[in-house]
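Batch manifest, entry 17 of 40.
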Amino acid sequence: MIGAGLSGLAAAHALNARGIDFVCLEKAPDVGGIWRQPGAGERGPAYLALHLNSAKELTGYADFPMGAELPLYPRHSDVAAYLRAFTEWAGLSDRIELRTEVLSVRPDAGGRWVVRSRDAGGVRERVFSQVVVASGHNTLPAMPQLPPGADTFGGSILHSMDYRDGSDFAGRRVVVVGLGASAVDIAADLSRYADRTWLSVRRGLHIIPKQLFGMSVDLIAEAPWFTAMSFPEQRRFVENALLVARGRLADYGLPEPDHPIFSSAVTISDEILSRIRHGAVVPKPAIESLDGDRVVFSDGSSVAADAVVYCTGFRMAFPFLPAGCPADERGVVELYKRIVAPGHPGLYFVGLIRPVGSITRLVEAQARWVAELVDGEVSLPAEDVMRKEIDAYLTGIAERYGSREGASIQVDVGAYLAELQRG
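Output type: structure tokens
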């Protein structure tokens, strides 16, 4: 197994519970994935202001709930400590090889998998009958083509991957680019330290508070009364609730989304709209060019800035896997039940999904199903049947989300959980 973050630990627990022999390879010095990076001072998609956007009741593992002493939305260090505690409680520590980087995973002539890895002792090869990939999908920074003038810009240009804390920008003037989760988190964090903070937004996204009607939105997503609704009914319910809770985004100076809710990724934030209303963050349109120390926007306005932080997401990368697996040349992920790679027997993925809400119950269900496959309790259909299921799923995704990058890993919590529980 590859990766000892939240998804990898769920898979390890499921395999261990069945007495299945396995080893988990993790390149970091400790378990916890992105949640441990800020405290360790490591480069990565996490930052010191990072907190859960999902309620602890659904983010903690079902067999090992998060402690009552933690707030509803714990900070990154609390989550990292929780994942370490889970590892010890579940008896997984001896199965995890830390500081071990996977270099390649290739099939051999006998249908097994040859895994090359590197640790302090050097490079070694081992043969496994099956491989579970749980290494996440926030891998490579997605940096757009920089605007004209970037090469002579007097300030610094960086990706959110290299952002750690707002105090690093104390007294400076900063433009944040994007409207996703990291963009709004970083803009709000910066606004407490920077002299001025602007938020440059090219395309509107739906911004959802962490709670509606006093309930965490991820708890709503799994509530029986919500899952009993049809999809159009769910969409109307949420759209009406958002109008009551926050009004129109245009009233904050942000572009209105050009798509219905749940037709693209949503941004969950309690803070950004409040920071805008308080004048701490000022919305701006897309960047047109950079000119000396000035950032010029598409509406003709400009500001003097010391830094531009691109919060433009990440690209999935699995350089250790065979080419075209699990994503094709367009970046479309092709997995049966979002787990199995057809044509690559014994290769499974856990956590390569993007739900609106907590991912934990989903990866636990994925992990249990993978453990059943490994144990021989359930079997896979023929490859052509799996490919038909994938085609049908991707057709539905395209109809709902279009061809936006990353859409192929979107799942609806209730429907996907029910699918996995059916087996």
